[in-house]
Design goal:
This protein is 46% helix and 14% strand. By secondary structure, it is α/β, with parallel strands linked by helices. It binds uridine-5'-diphosphate-glucuronic acid.
Length: 425
């Protein structure tokens, strides 16, 4: 079993640490943030991800998982280093790689024997090569090392299951030693393992996320046409998805995609292509279509209840998708800003993301928060389904209609049964 350090315990890092530990490896989690490491040492997860806390507690209890704010301890205590630090989007859409570069330099200064350094964060193509060059430049001890690229395909909300039962594992390496070490790490998982060069692995990640986002924007454009001609986009998606070349997944039309990955990755991939002289306007359009989804929802509200100033709109769901408290690039935030600018009042409900939303939006006395979807909708002029939380399907629509000022629902996720809504008035 390997000794692994995970550098950066954000979303990807924490899940990676917990799951490798579950696969039997010894894991050290490092982060620069004291508070976060203290929380983790208590076996508490700083993020909401089903199943994660149980894994953390187990690893801490049997002593095979530890946490530190000292990167030197993490580097010296392991043979494989997973780089999971943030790669935030810079102003021009390109990824800001300063954290990756800083980690590479620190690794170089503490190398004490052969180590495999694995890039896990989503990064532009050629980053692993840059990391190798940087580590070589600052490597005073002359210790051997290799770099690898091992992109993750985890979805928030089902990340543990995605890690343990992946469709595929992509491994980018430059030599046999790194290849064998990587394959050993994943020997407990039975799935397709694609071993490629570094650049190919890096492109696979961006190309996969961008393609899924493209699929969503595509069906959203189709839905605009469906709205105009009176066709049912759900059925259109079903009809398309029955063709196994197309597949039904990621063809759910609605208010658009959000989260920390798709919006950022689509823009980054488009910039990467541009930086290499390749025109990828298809992705610019993907992004623009997604941004326009907020206007589509706003227009639907205006068509139904006309002037928005002074009107009360209930938000059913604030998270960018169910089973997470994440509101990064969430449609809820973008819609809230537009509606507040129009002078509307918002009553929000979300079982997990209320605090994160409140923090991201900032204080605003036009926004209140409620414990149930029904409470949020009470007295409202309209409800917008922003997140497809399963508990919304249990709402008694007949009762709901009686408590709203005007019983109006804009279903931004095609989540509720439209016939049941109509029947309830
Ligand atoms: C996404 C990818 O699915 C993962 O494979 C990848 O590892 C991850 O990004 C990442 O790069 O880290 P995630 O952002 O967690 O995962 O969420 P998804 O389930 O992919 O959903 C993204 C957004 O698309 C959500 O806002 C969701 O509501 C929306 N969506 C999804 C749709 O609007 N329609 C669909 O048909 C599917």
């Amino acid at each position: 079993m390997a000794k692994i350090s995970v550098l950066g315990t954000g979303y990807v890092g924490l899940v990676t640490a917990a799951c490798f530990n579950r696969l039997g490896h010894e894991v050290i989690g490092y982060d620069v943030l004291d508070d976060k490491i203290e929380t983790l040492k208590r076996g508490e997860s700083p993020i909401y991800e089903p199943g994660l806390e149980d894994l953390l507690k187990q690893g801490l209890e049997d002593g095979t998982m530890t946490f530190t704010t000292d990167m030197e301890t993490a580097i010296r205590g392991s043979d494989v280093l997973f780089v999971c630090v943030g790669t935030p989007q810079g102003q021009d859409g390109r990824a800001d790689l300063s954290q990756v570069e800083a980690v590479a330099r620190t690794i170089a200064s503490h190398l004490d024997g052969f180590k495999l350094i694995v890039e896990k964060s989503t990064v532009p193509v050629k980053t692993a090569q840059r990391m190798r060059e940087t580590i070589a430049r600052y490597n005073k001890s002359g210790s051997g090392f290799a770099v690898a690229s091992n992109p993750e395909f985890l979805r928030e909300g089902s990340a543990i299951g995605d890690f343990m039962n992946p469709d595929r594992i992509v491994i980018g390496v430059e030599d046999d030693r790194a290849r064998e070490m990587m394959l050993d790490l994943y020997s407990g998982l039975d799935c397709a393992k694609l071993v490629v060069d570094l650049e190919t692995a890096e492109i696979i990640k961006h190309a996969s996320n961008s393609f899924l986002a493209l699929k969503i924007s595509y069906i959203n454009m189709v839905s605009e046409l469906c709205d105009v001609v009176g066709a049912d986009v759900e059925k259109v998606a079903e009809g398309m998805g029955l063709d196994e070349r197309i597949s039904a997944s990621f063809l759910r039309a609605g208010i658009g995609y959000g989260g920390s990955c798709f919006p950022k990755d689509v823009r980054a991939f488009q910039r990467i292509a541009e930086d290499h002289g390749v025109n990828f306007d298809l992705l610019r359009e993907t992004d623009e279509i997604n941004n326009r989804r907020i206007d589509v929802v706003t227009r639907k509200l205006q068509d139904l209840i006309w002037v928005l100033r002074g009107k009360t709109i209930a938000f059913w769901g604030l998270a960018f998708k169910p089973d997470t408290d994440d509101v990064r690039e969430a449609p809820s935030l973008r819609l809230a800003k537009v509606l507040l600018d129009e002078g509307a009042i918002i009553r929000g409900w979300d079982p997990e993301a209320q605090e994160t939303f409140q923090y991201a939006l900032g204080p605003n006395d036009q926004v209140t928060y409620h414990d149930t979807p029904e409470a949020a909708a009470a007295g409202a002029d309209a409800v917008v389904v922003v997140t497809d939380w399963p508990q919304l399907l249990d709402v008694d629509l007949v009762q709901l209609a009686g408590t709203m000022a005007t019983p109006t629902i804009v279903d931004g996720r095609n989540h509720l049964d439209p016939d049941a809504c109509r029947a309830a008035g």
